């Protein structure tokens, strides 16, 4: 791979500057490494949780169970015990 003359001179100048200030170079490299690592970890998490399709046959048929208690202005998630209670006492049609 060949660089044009000015690009090669710029790379040499940057390397000489980094050699003269090793503390600054170390801080810059560590900052870049932490930033790239954090971004990679966050993207991997978001990709796994939000961007990939769920491993189910009919993802469009999934539902979220919420309830609104009297006197509250927001919905809350069901506890596992509440879910089991409603599942066992469900008399509606299935399917």
Using brief descriptors, characterize the structure shown.
95 residues, mainly alpha, two-stranded antiparallel sheet, 3 helices
What this model shows, in words?
This protein has 95 residues and is mainly alpha-helical. Helix content is 58%, strand content 4%. It has three helices and two strands, in the order ααββα. It has helices at residues 5-20, 22-51, 80-88; strands at residues 66-67, 76-77. The radius of gyration is 28 Å and the shape is elongated. The mean pLDDT is 86.
User: Approximately how much beta-strand content do the residues carry?
Assistant: under 5%
Structural class of the secondary elements?
mainly alpha
Span between N and C termini? 63 Å
- Which regions are unreliable across 5 or more consecutive residues at pLDDT < 50? none
Q: Order of helices and strands, N to C?
A: HHEEH
The main sheet comes to: 2 strands, antiparallel
The rough form would be described as: elongated
Q: Write down the Rg.
A: 28 Å
Could you tell me the number of beta strands? 2
The whole-number mean of residue pLDDT values reads: 86
Helix tally equals 3
Helix share bin:
55-70%
Output the strand order for the largest sheet: 1-2
How is the topology of this model organized?
Layout: H1 5-20, H2 22-51, E1 66-67, E2 76-77, H3 80-88
Antiparallel strand pairs: 1-2
């Amino acid at each position: 791979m060949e660089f044009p003359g000015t690009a090669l001179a710029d790379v040499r100048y940057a390397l000489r500057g980094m050699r003269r200030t090793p503390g600054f170079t170390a801080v810059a490299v560590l900052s870049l490494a932490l930033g790239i690592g954090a971004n990679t970890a966050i993207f991997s998490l978001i990709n796994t949780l939000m961007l990939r399709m769920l491993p189910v046959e009919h993802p469009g048929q999934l539902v979220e169970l919420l309830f609104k208690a009297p006197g509250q202005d927001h919905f809350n998630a069901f506890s596992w015990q509440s879910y089991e209670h409603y599942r066992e006492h469900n008399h509606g049609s299935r399917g």
